[in-house]
Amino acid sequence: MKNKGQKISQAFQRWLLALVAIAFLTSTAFLWFSQTRLSEDNTHNLLKLNILDVEQDIKDLSDENLLKVTHRIAKELNKKDSVSSFDLMVLADKHSVPEINLIDTNGIISASTFPNFVGFDMSSGTQSGAFMVLLEEQNELVQSYQPLTYDENIWRKYAGVALKNGGFVQVGYDSYSFYEDISNKITQSTRNRHIGENGSIIVADERLNIVSNRGGYVGSELSTIGIDLDNFAPETLFTVTVQSVPSYCMYAISEGFHIIAVIPQSEAVLSRNVSVGITTVMEVLIFAALFLLIYYLIKKLVVNNIERINDSLAKITDGDLNEVVDVRSHMEFANLSDDINSTVDTLKKYIADAAARIDAELAFAKAIQHSALPSVFPPYPNRKEFDIWATMDTAKEVGGDFYDFYFVNEDTLAFLIADVSGKGIPAAMFMMNAKAVLKSYAESGLEVNKTFTLANEKLCEGNEAGMFVTAWMGFLNTKTGEVTFANAGHNPPLVRHADGSFEYLKVRAGFVLAGMEGVKYRKNELQLAANDVIYLYTDGVTEATNINDELYGEVRLLDLLNAHKDATMEELCKLVLDDVFAFTGEAPQFDDITMVALKYNGTSEPTEEVQS
Amino acid sequence: MIIDKQLNGSELILSLTGRLDTTTAPELEAVIKENIIGVTNLVMDFAGLEYLSSAGLRVILSAQKTMNKQGEMVIRNVNETINEVFEITGFIDILTIE
Fold first, then answer.
1. Looking at CB atoms within 10 Å, which of A441, A540, A583, B91 has the fewest?
2. How does pLDDT run across B26-45, given as a tens digit for each residue?
3. Does position A499 have pLDDT exceeding 80, yes or no?
4. CATH pick for A13-177 out of 1.10.10.10, 3.40.1190.20, 3.30.460.80, 3.30.450.20
5. At A192, which helix (H) or strand (E)?
6. Cβ–Cβ gap A466/B58 under 8 Å
């Protein structure tokens, strides 16, 4: 018996696998996320550091360059006693600077390349005011590139140097003037700078034309290599594809230059990928080990024990009530084993009790059945006209065979044999009824065929179970040896006339008793002479079966009877019974074996009929 | 025993193979009981029947009684041994054997 549905081990396996998979995916996702953040932070810091470095380099170069120019101009101005704005314009052309201002000791512009600046008070602006230190102890000052005080759209870088006659000169640079001066130096200082393995610094000017790039494209716009800075704020990390390489970028603006730090993404996330990869492999190993361990434990602790109990239960349900369930590895299984064992013990006791009761009742029923049949032999010691012997050997079950004989009047012996269809208590009860009904009609003085006809009607009443009985009944006139008989579907008897052999007394049989209402039975006649024998039997004899499924059969019976012509009726019955048992051997007896043997001796005072 | 059942409208054909005895008779009884409602022509084919005991006779008798009320029952292909059983028991008088 196999039930559909999952095995515990399989269901467990699936749940365990699902949980392990969820745990694995969750931890991997978390690791991936945190490692990505970490690597972005690292990249951010790395790029920022490089940008600051380059920013400082450029500022240093720019400052140095402008101071140098300013000192050169101051040196020339120191040679002169008076300086006009025109003189400054000449100097500006000579040194390629856009603006020179001369400031007097009061901090007022006294001359300028831009004549309208003359008279401007340097202390009035924040940016310009910073230069006032040059009127005191400080000798030089350089400012970063920044918007002008009076017009923030114009960016300029200023340097100032104190003059020996008091006052100072201020030189202004716009980006184009110093690009030419410092571009080469910037290129030199940045071109070979590496960020990580393959990262680099790109420098572009104010108009976003490339000034320095390890990958070439100097002079081209930044957008030609894929960088469009308009979309991003300075000093933030962003991703963009630079010359076909997906990269992290960050930029800053210094001295009019755009400093862009670039590192390929693949390099930036390499450490993340490595650590996620290693962790994943380790997790797979750990989770696999965990899965196997738990699965093995469940299998060993639960499933195997359940299977052992099931094996025992299967033996028990197959009928082996002596099987003992003995799984004692854990308390729960020990309790279950004990419960099953005690249930089986109780069941065994009930079955044994019930079997004993049924056996006793069947034995009792058999005893009643037997006691209803004539069992004292010889039954009529005073009647010398005939010898009669009968025997019924019942099968293990209570059966439905019976025989009977009685005098219906002074000179008429009724004798019969019958076989109720089926077995067991119902057949036995039906047999008792049939026997009584037959006897009451026979004793009322009816002829044998009328007895059958009326008994049939009686037995048909209320025969819901559809049972029937085959019967052969004869009335022997003990004076004359004349037998009238009727056959209700029974096996033909054997008759031996004194001078011959047994022969089957085959007449056309009537229908079985209790089978159908309205059946009429015929009367048949048979004349017995002295020493003639009539032998009645049920199909328990002819259909006795050996282990090869062979039937004992009518021929064997005939031969046996003919081989023992001198036997008494008692011997005849016993001979047949012994021979049948010898034939069946080990094979079980399924049917009752019943027989009646009658020998007619003739009357003690010979009559004419006998002599004739 | 093998019981081959063919139901064509109101005709039921039961072909029996093997032994019809105490053990197998209840099977035949159940098959008949399940299918006999509305049947007006019951045919039992005994071509493959080897043995017939009194338990089998009881089922045949019961079927015959039922069919007496609602139609006809015919038994076909009865071999010599089985026919002898019908003769001995007088069943031959109440059955229609072809």
1. A583
2. 899 999 999 998 899 999 99
3. no
4. 3.30.450.20
5. none
6. yes
Is residue A607 predicted with pLDDT exceeding 50?
Answer: no
Contact B65 A510 (CB under 8 A): no
ipTM here: 0.85
Residues 6+ apart with CB under 8 A from A40: A237, A248, A268
Torsion of CA A265, A270, A275, A280, to 10 degrees: 80
Do B58 and A509 lie within an 8 Å CB cutoff? no
From chain A, the residues in CB contact with B55 under 8 A are 421-422
- HEC string for A265-304: HHHHCHHHHHHHHHHHHHHHHHHHHHHHHHHHHHHHHHHH
- For chain B, the maximum distance between any two Cα atoms, rounded to a whole number of angstroms, is 35
What confidence tens digit (pLDDT) does each residue in A294-327 have? 888 888 888 888 888 888 888 888 888 888 888 8
Copy the structure tokens of residue A392: 């019924």
Q: A156 in helix, strand or coil?
A: strand
Q: Which of A430, A468, A508, A554 to mutate to test the interface with B (most CBs of B within 10 A)?
A: A468
The three-class DSSP label of residue A10 is helix
* Phi, psi (rounded to 5 degrees) for A43: -65, -45
What pLDDT was estimated at residue A353? 92
The highest-level CATH class for domain A372-611 is alpha beta
Every domain of chain A and the residues it spans: 13-177, 183-268, 372-611
Do the two domains A13-177 and A372-611 of this chain adopt the same fold? no
Fold that domain A183-268 belongs to in CATH: Beta-Lactamase (3.30.450)
Tokens of residue A27, six digits? 């931890």
Q: How far apart are CA A8 and CA A459, in angstroms?
A: 62
Cα B59 from chain centre: 7
From residue A413, alpha-carbon distances to A225, A357, A469, A480, A607 in Å are 136, 40, 22, 12, 18
Question: Does A510 contact B at CB distance below 8 Å?
Answer: yes
What single-letter amino acid sits at A237?
A: L
Place of tokens 């006795």: A544
Phi and psi at residue A346, to the nearest 5°: -60, -45
C-alpha to C-alpha distance for B12 and B76, rounded to whole angstroms: 13
Chain B closest CA to A432's CA: distance in Å? 18
CA atoms of A535 and A539, how far apart (whole Å)? 13
How many other CB atoms sit within 10 Å of the CB of residue A393? 18
Q: Which CATH architecture has domain B2-94?
A: 2-Layer Sandwich (3.30)
User: In the prediction, which pLDDT does A4 show?
Assistant: 58
φ, ψ for residue A420 (rounded to 5)?
-85, 140
Question: What mean pLDDT is predicted for residues A189-196?
Answer: 79
Place of tokens 């208590």: A425
